[in-house]
Amino acid sequence: MTKKLCFLVVLSFLIFINLSSQTLRDTIIVSGSSFIYRGIPLSADQLLVKMQNSPGAYSEMSIAKLNYDVTTGLIYVASFCTGFPIGQALAGAKPAWGLLGVAAGAVIVAVPFSIVAHYHAKNAVRMYNSNLMRFGLNKLDVNLEFTAASIGLRFRF
User: Fold this and answer.
1) I want to staple 114 with a disulfide (CB 3.0 to 4.6 A). Which of 38, 68, 71, 92 is the partner?
2) pLDDT tens digits for 30-60?
3) Within a domain: residue 6?
C-alpha cells in the first residue's frame, strides 16, 4: 500500500511539474493571408475586437479594417458587373459588355487596398504579440509542490 501511494505521489508530481506547456498561447499567428488565434482563423472584425486592449495594434487594425471594407465593396461591384452581362447573354437579351470594363477597373482599384489592408493587419498583429510578450500575459506556471503540512498545487502568474 505504501509503495503504491509513493508511486502515485511521484507520478502526480511528474504529471503536474510542467502543466503550463499544455496551455495554448495567446499570440496571433499570420499564415498567408489568414490570421489564426488558438487554432481558429479570425476575420477582420474579430481581430479588431481582440486588439481592443492594445491601443497601437487597435489603431493599425482600424486602418486595415477600413481598407478591407473598401476592398470588399469593390469586389462586390466587380462581381455584379461581371455577372449581370453574362446573365443577360444567357437569357438571350443584348448584354451590356461595358460593365465588364467596370468590373476590371474595380478589381484593379481593389488590389492596392487589399495589399494595404494586409500590411496594416500584419503590423497590428506584430504590435499585439509584442505587447503580450512584454507584459507576460501568456505565462503561467503550475507546479505540484511540498508545503510544510501537505502537498499542493502552486500557481505562478
Assistant:
1) 71
2) 887 888 888 889 888 898 898 888 889 999 9
3) no
What's the CA gap between 39 and 27, in Å, rounded? 10
Query: Residue 123 to residues 52, 56, 91, 126: CA-CA distances in angstroms?
Result: 15, 10, 48, 5
Give the bridge partners for 143, in sequence order.
Answer: 154
Exposure of 79 in the CB half-sphere (CA atoms within 13 A): 6
Domain hosting residue 99, numbered range: 18-156
Counting Cα atoms < 13 Å in the Cβ hemisphere of 62 gives 7
Residue type, 55: P
70 assigned to some structural domain: yes
Q: Express each pLDDT in 65-83 by its tens digit.
A: 999 999 999 999 999 999 9
Is 34 within the bounds of a domain?
A: yes
Residue 130: in which H helix or E strand, if any? helix 98-135
Q: Tell me if 10 is assigned to some domain.
A: no
Distances (CA, A) of 2 to 12, 28, 147, 149: 15, 48, 20, 19
